[in-house]
Design goal:
The protein has three helices and no strands. The chain is an all-alpha fold.
């Protein structure tokens, strides 16, 4: 009887351990399948992560290129600003010189404005040809004063245009710097 009970208990123990083993086998297989799925997911994420990394690196290179381009634009604009300043200083100096010369010629003309002085200058000629030359000289002098006035006006216009150009260059530089930020 003891042998029979022992054999039944052993068969049951073997039956339980076979069922447990099958259950363990199924659990292990399920874990293997889960790991395989996780591995596939990791490979997908790895590919996605590598592609995102490449895109970020490309975007970074493009941004650096854009910054270099903006810096080149700023340097060009700064060069234009410097050139405009040099032109403004030159035009201002030229304008001052022209005004002083014109002022001297106007003062001289004012001091010698009477028709008596003109006639005296004309009649003091030694001969007819000298008188003609003196008349031509007076016409040339009047023409010269008119040219001086035109030169002054033209220089003032150029001066004002350079100031406007300088202002526009400064605005463009400001906008370029703002676009970089």
């Amino acid at each position: 009887l003891a042998v029979l009970i022992l054999s039944i208990v052993c068969q049951q123990a073997q039956g339980q351990s076979s069922a447990e083993l099958k259950k363990k086998q199924a659990d292990i297989q399920r874990e293997i399948d889960d790991l395989r799925e996780q591995l596939n997911q990791t490979k997908k994420y790895k590919k996605k992560s590598l592609s995102e990394l490449n895109l970020v690196q490309k975007r970074l290179r493009l941004r650096e290129s854009q910054i270099r381009n903006i810096n080149d634009q700023i340097n060009l604009i700064q060069g234009n600003i410097n050139q405009s300043w040099r032109d403004i200083v030159k035009l201002r100096s030229e304008l001052d010189t022209l005004k002083k010369q014109y002022e001297k010629s106007v003062v001289y003309a004012y001091k010698n404005r009477s028709s008596y002085d003109f006639l005296n200058f004309l009649f003091s000629a030694t001969n007819f040809n000298d008188a003609i030359r003196r008349i031509a000289y007076m016409k040339a002098y009047r023409s010269f004063r008119a040219q001086q006035l035109d030169a002054i006006n033209h220089t003032e216009i150029l001066y004002k245009e350079k100031i406007v150009q300088l202002t526009n260059n400064k605005k463009e530089k400001t906008l370029t710097i703002q676009s970089q930020a």
